[in-house]
Amino acid sequence: MMDLNWYAVLVAVIALLLWIIDRKTKQLIELPGPRPLPFVGNILHLTNIKEVLPKFLMFMRTYGDNYKLKFGNKTFIQICDAELVKKVVNSNNFNEKSEFYSFLHSWLGTGLLTSSGQKWQNHRKIITPTFHFQILENFIPTFATKSDILVEKLSAFCGKGDFDISQHILLCTLDIICETAMGTSMNIQNDSSSPYVKAVHNMREIFMRRTLSPVKQFQIFYQFSKDYKLEKESLDILHSTTMNVIRKRKELLDNTVDTVPDRKTAFLDTLLNNGLDLEDIKNEVDTFMFEGHDTTGSGLYFILYCLSIYPNIQEMVYEEQQCIYGKTSNKTTLQNLLSMNYLEKVIKESMRLYPPVPTFARKIINDYHYNSNVLAKGGTAAIFSFGIHRNSRYFPNPEEFDPERFTVENSMTRPQYAYIPFSAGPRNCIGQKFAMLEMKVVISKLVRNYKFLPCPGFKPVLIPDIVLKSDNGIRLKIVKRE
């Protein structure tokens, strides 16, 4: 009974504090939005994660391009306005990540995704040269080899009805990131039940459940939840995998007489050779292992879904590949990849409709005035790329799949920050050139070998699981090309 009374008092005190904070900040927030309830805010609008993105779009169309939400005592300014995006991503007033990213610290520590200030600047400066085009060119053979394995694995499904291709894609992208950036061959595509992929899935879901829970946002309550136990189990897998990757690479470098590192593994070599301590190296490796396979994987399987339901566009992609490779040459080169102009437009249009990161958030360091509104200090500026990309102000008939939006002429008519699949500003995705080359190689290999067909009645159920996911997978059919 004493424990129950203590718990009730604690809850009452927290509720009072939330009410005081809510009253204090309400006077500063002038943007419209759905009416929040006391203490829980708008969380009850978003209890079903499958409804989050549709409701966010509905709010955009109801309240305007910028609107406010409350998650517990946390104020979110949801931004779907390209002009405000430009100001946010380029302003020192928003150069810190939202406090919600702290839910990822147990996994990613303070790597590039979650760090800020001088540490972020130093690490970004160290890592940036490893993504130079001359270095990326050396990764292309590995992209091609791993894509060939994927082609072989998918042959088992050829002509045998629909199947979920998403997990096969994720295993391929994890295989690629391990061997290219980390210098470790893990033969992941031959392990269809990869514990690493499952652990990443668990951590993404836990992050979203914490974000949308007024109780689990507080560590004092979260540590008694089932998610906390699941997080610990998942972290054991993730961190042991990371340390194994670092150990193998360090042993190889220590035993190599040649002092010039293999340029194909420049990322991890750079970390090991720049005086970073082991914890910082682990954080960056965890970050790139996650972002390097999960975001690219999301981009890839939504591209394949789009190709399956737009056969005319798929055939145009195939025809371009035939023009580039003909009937004899099969070697993947940088020159070939750079000449895939139509495929690049298809990739960009797919990432418009299905951006791998549907939203990214920054902390509002000081009150910020925009037009007649105030973005209050301590709140979160949430840049809703999924909504910006479906904003009819920038993309007429936004639900229509049209690669011609990305001709040079059409792209010049849009605001620069209306299309941000890789974020924008100084904190944009450092690996976007890597990702684009990888996606081109994988799609090129797959389209030249298979024709992708739709699964009747299937439509992906989109969820913002840190990375954009389909809750019901990506189901399609494949047949062998002649």
Automatic annotation (TrEMBL):
The keyword Transmembrane applies. Its cofactor is heme. The keyword Transmembrane helix applies. Keywords: Heme, Iron, Membrane, Metal-binding, Monooxygenase, Oxidoreductase, Transmembrane, Transmembrane helix. InterPro entries: Cyt_P450, Cyt_P450_CS, Cyt_P450_E_grp-I, Cyt_P450_sf, Cytochrome_P450_Monoox. It comes from the Eukaryota. The chain crosses the membrane at residues 6-21. Coiled coil: none annotated. PANTHER family: CYTOCHROME P450 4AE1-RELATED, CYTOCHROME P450 FAMILY 4. Belongs to the cytochrome P450 family. This is Cytochrome P450 4C1-like. It comes from Nicrophorus vespilloides. The gene is LOC108560231.
